[in-house]
Amino acid sequence: MTLLALDFKKLQAISKIGEDILPVVVQHATTRDVLTLAYTNFVALRQTQETGIATFWSTSRNSLWVKGATSGNYLKLIEIRVNCENNSLLYLVEPQGAGVCHVIDPTTGVHNPSCFFNKLASI
User: Fold this and answer.
1) Which tens digits make up the pLDDT trace of 74-112?
2) Which CATH number is 20-118 given?
3) Are 84 and 101 in contact (CB under 8 A)?
4) 23 closest CA partner among 77, 89, 78
5) Closest C-alpha among 47, 40, 35 to residue 95
6) Spatial CA neighbour of 45 closest among 60, 24, 25, 26
7) How far is CA 33 from the centre of its chain?
8) Which of 31, 58, 29, 30 lies closest to 44, judged by CA?
9) What's the whole-model pTM score?
């Protein structure tokens, strides 16, 4: 596989948006597959707790992002866990649509079931 253009400056860019955020690992509650990595702020976290649907803070749009609002691929919240340092979250979810990732698999025509579908070539 071709070496991917890894974005080593992502966290540096996020730190400049002026929003207090935490990373969120999103994991399938049943299969335990890691589905995506996203970010949340206090408002998005509260909305997630109140609605039971994963809501994040979009670092690219600098706004709230209800996962599935445009695609229909919602993430139903099962449980929220906090890491030992209180600086990241784990959302255990049940996907409610055809896929999770915004990238569509060209072979199936549906959204990829996880955002972690690329493999890094060995160094």
Assistant:
1) 999 999 999 999 999 999 999 998 888 888 888 888 888
2) 3.10.20.810
3) no
4) 89
5) 35
6) 24
7) 13
8) 58
9) 0.89
